[in-house]
Amino acid sequence: METFESLVRAEFAPKNTYLNTASTGLLPVRAVDAMRTAVASVAAGRPADMFADVEAARASFARLAGVPAARVAAGASVAVYSGLIAAALPPGAEVLTAEADFSSVVNPFHARGDLKVRAVPLERLAESVRPGTALVAVSAAQSADGRVADLPAIREAARTHGARTYVDASQAAGWLPLTADAYDYVSSVAFKWLVCPRGVAFLVVPEDFGGLTPLFAGWVAGQAPWDSCYGPVEELAHSARRFDESPSLFSYAGARHSLELLEKLGVERVRTHDLGLADRFRAGLRELGHEPVPAPGSPIVSVPGLGRLQPELSEAGVEVSDRAGNLRAAFHLYNTSADVDRLLDALRP
């Protein structure tokens, strides 16, 4: 009988203590095998239909996000989708963001040049929505330190003032259960907590497309893609596929299997596992006299002042990140309590 533990151990076998999922997640064996097969088929002159992999990955992400697949666009970059949303806003519109949020979420709104972008502390985001706010854009979990946004409060405040909501779930999808239907737009890369190859990203849009214009639509965005290869696309897809980027097919060949594994494991079980390890690390840090950045309910733990230790930890086989001088550790499904203890031992004076 397969268990959470047996499934994970069959798919992941890191050769070090890997605690850096907030940067890049590890690939499961099934995804690596699928990509090898796809590459070999092209090398042999017998390419498989990898567009079927795109559709399978889209459907799998849609189930994880709790929305119909027709509302999910497939691409490669959150920044591209942020730019698409930014382009839909009228001149002078106010966009409310969290201070120091990830650049791919906020910079496209600044790049417009004619929008009013207002940044406030993450904890004050909901209370800062006001009449005239057109959009609230925020990461579900902060990349720098793991703090989790109060998304229900933000959603309610936005609804009260008639603002749309845009949530980047790149640091949350895969461990935090998604209710994408509660927000206007939800984007996510898949190479972190969704353990997919780089080159895979998704955007969830409303049924009516939320006022977005498919500015970068190419042939894959046509209702009949293979009939849309030359000249203007005569009929755009009737679904969110009209917002697809031309896909990185080898990446999607692996992604469908990564997402399949997460569906099988269950995000709630992954969340319980991840948070248990993060809490163990936080408790150990306090015993050593270190106070992490407060981020309850997050598998990302940031420790002020210890980022300088990242190179020597890497030399010792423990992979973490240095973010603005803070040591950032991220705990995911392939990590164990032994990994936590190994990092704590490496931090002992």
Written description of the protein model:
The longest helix is centred in the last third of the chain and has 21 residues, at 267-287. Helix content is 37%, strand content 15%. It has eleven helices and twelve strands. Strand 11 and strand 12 form a beta hairpin. It has helices at residues 4-11, 29-43, 51-65, 78-87, 103-112, 125-128, 151-161, 249-265, 267-287, 310-315, 337-347; strands at 17-18, 72-75, 94-98, 116-120, 133-139, 164-168, 185-189, 201-204, 300-303, 318-319, 321-323, 326-330. Helix 3 packs parallel to helix 8. 48% of the residues are buried. Strands 2-8-7-6-5-3-4 form a seven-stranded mixed beta sheet, with helices on both faces. The protein starts with a helix and ends with a helix. With 349 residues, the chain is an alpha/beta fold.
Unreliable spans: none
Shape: globular
Strand order of the largest sheet: 2-8-7-6-5-3-4
Fraction in helix: 25-40%
Strand tally: 12
Strand content: 5-15%
Number of H/I helices: 11
Name the structural class.
Answer: alpha/beta
Mean pLDDT: 97
Question: Rg to the nearest angstrom?
Answer: 21 Å
- One letter per element, helices H and strands E, the order comes to HEHHEHEHEHEHEEEHHEHEEEH
Largest sheet: 7 strands, mixed
Span from first to last CA? 44 Å
Gist of the model:
By secondary structure, the chain is of the alpha/beta class. Helix content is 37%, strand content 15%. The protein has helices spanning 4-11, 29-43, 51-65, 78-87, 103-112, 125-128, 151-161, 249-265, 267-287, 310-315, 337-347; strands at 17-18, 72-75, 94-98, 116-120, 133-139, 164-168, 185-189, 201-204, 300-303, 318-319, 321-323, 326-330.
